[in-house]
Every structure is written in structure tokens, then in C-alpha cells.
Design a protein that fits this description.
The protein is mainly alpha-helical. The chain has 13 helices and two strands. The protein has a two-stranded antiparallel sheet. Strand 1 and strand 2 form a beta hairpin.
Length: 289
């Protein structure tokens, strides 16, 4: 019997090891492919001209491949979505996990699950039909397809990840912590924000990391509401993100233009890796502290 258990554990360990190696191998293959496909264009265009050039005109007679507007737009759009989405998602998670009555908690959990299951193109369609005209009317601008519309759509799209992961982290906090705080005279709200939230900070930080990844990597919904014009970022102006730059031109690209699009994908890949590594570094530092 003991021998069978050991054999079973060895088999399970081997299966997990193989699956883990497959995952790592897929990441390595993607990385190698992007490096091989993206570096030739950077070599032909020039690293500084590619990263710091402010003009993208890939189909002109004399093409220009500067992606600085895309980089700045992606950074600005992601930061705006995080600034809008994180407070809303965090406070919603605290309410649903600790303050809401059971009926409202169930309805809120269902709504969050529904938001998570909506395809990106539906977010983009609703944004294009409702949000874009509203911005145009409210702010009296020629076209509502803008950076502001993209930020709002991204902020809504990252809510399910932030809310669901934060709720899980808050519910995992030992009840003894809260009982001790209440016994010392703290109010329930004080207990939740001064005891439960600090105890769950690692999980909440992980939720923010997931939200950042979703915001940076989104393409379809953003392309439908941002105007998709290669301009420097401005709140009420049409803009193009790194993701939408690749998605909008790859179908008809060829030659150096296609290689430049792969270079954009490489920059986006490295950008996401850098952000995740930075966030994980600070997250581990806060846990050790």
C-alpha cells in the first residue's frame, strides 16, 4: 500500500513537472520568435529612430517607423485605467466581501462573473455606440473616439479581475484578526480597512498586477473606441496603442512594415515583462517588510 502511494505521488509529480516545463517552453518559444522576428527591423530602422521617433507612416513612399506615440499612449492609457479602475474595484471588493448582505453579495458576485465573461468586442461595440457619442456631446469635441474613451473602457474591463481576486484575498484573512480588533473597540469599518485589508495586501496587489496585464494587452475593444490614429497622447484626440498598432496593420503588411510590426510586438512583450517584474519586486519587498 505504501509503495503504491509513493508510486502515485511520483507519477503526479512527474505530470506536474512536465506541464510546468511545457508552460516555460511555450514562453521561451514565444520570446525567441519575437526576438528573431523583431530585431531585423530595429537594425534597419535604428533603435533610437524606432523607439523615439514621433512619426508612424508605414505606407508612405518614404516610410517612417517611429513608435514613441504608441509607447506613450499605452503608458498613459494603462495608467489612467488603473487610476480609475483600482479604487472602484478595491472598494467594491471590500463591500462585497465584508459589508454587503448575502443577497447583494450573491448578486454582486454574479455581476462580476458576467463582466468577466463578456467578450472584448462587446465592450468595444458598446463603447463605440454609447460612450463615444456621449463624450462627443458632453465635451463638445469633433470625435468622441479618443484616449478618454479607451481609458474608461479599459477601466471597466479590468474590474472583474481586481474585484474577484481581491474578494478571495479578503475572505482568506483569518476571522480571529477581525474578532480581536472588534474586541479592542474598533468599529467594523475600521477593522476591515485597518486589519483585513493590510492582511490581504499581497492578494490585492496580485489583483492589481492582473489588471495591469489586462489593460496593457487589450487590443480589439481599444481599437474600436480610441480612433486608432498614430498621434501623441491627448485626452480628447484619437490615439493608437501598441497592441492596436499591430492588430490594425498586420493583415496587409509586408517587407519592412511587417518586420516593424513584429518589433512593436517585441517592445510590448518586453514592456509587459518589465512591469510585471517591477510589481512583483515591490510586492515581495512589502511581504518581507
Amino acid at each position: 500500500m505504501k509503495h503504491k502511494k509513493q508510486l502515485l505521488e511520483t507519477v503526479i509529480h512527474g505530470v506536474f513537472l512536465i506541464l510546468g516545463l511545457i508552460t516555460v517552453g511555450c514562453v521561451l518559444l514565444i520570446t525567441i520568435y519575437l526576438v528573431v522576428a523583431g530585431l531585423p527591423a530595429i537594425g534597419k530602422i535604428g533603435l533610437f529612430d524606432f523607439l523615439l521617433g514621433d512619426t508612424w507612416a508605414s505606407t508612405e513612399t518614404v516610410p517612417s517607423f517611429g513608435i514613441l506615440p504608441f509607447i506613450l499612449t499605452s503608458v498613459t492609457g494603462t495608467a489612467g485605467a488603473i487610476l480609475l479602475g483600482v479604487p472602484v474595484g478595491f472598494l467594491t471588493a471590500v463591500y462585497l466581501a465584508k459589508l454587503a448582505p448575502p443577497a447583494i453579495r450573491q448578486a454582486g458576485a454574479f455581476a462580476v462573473s458576467l463582466l468577466a465573461g463578456i467578450p472584448s468586442v462587446v465592450y468595444g461595440l458598446v463603447g463605440m455606440m454609447v460612450l463615444v457619442p456621449a463624450i462627443r456631446t458632453l465635451f463638445h469635441v469633433p470625435d468622441g473616439a479618443s484616449l478618454l474613451a479607451a481609458i474608461i473602457v479599459l477601466a471597466i474591463m479590468i474590474l472583474p479581475s481586481i474585484i474577484s481576486v481581491s474578494i478571495t484575498a479578503l475572505e482568506a484573512v483569518p476571522k480571529e484578526y477581525e474578532d480581536a480588533s472588534l474586541a479592542l473597540g474598533a468599529t467594523p469599518v475600521e477593522t476591515y480597512f485597518r486589519v483585513s485589508v493590510p492582511a490581504a495586501k499581497s492578494g490585492i496587489a496580485a489583483a492589481v498586477v492582473l489588471g495591469v496585464g489586462r489593460a496593457i494587452g487589450e487590443a480589439m475593444a481599444v481599437m474600436m473606441v480610441s480612433g486608432n490614429a498614430p498621434n501623441l497622447p491627448s485626452l480628447f484626440q484619437s490615439v493608437r496603442f501598441l497592441t492596436t498598432a499591430v492588430a490594425s496593420e498586420l493583415s496587409y503588411s509586408s517587407g519592412l512594415q511587417q518586420q516593424a510590426l513584429f518589433s512593436i510586438a517585441l517592445v510590448l512583450f518586453l514592456f509587459i515583462m518589465l512591469i510585471n517584474a517591477t510589481l512583483n519586486f515591490f510586492l515581495k519587498g512589502s511581504q518581507e517588510g
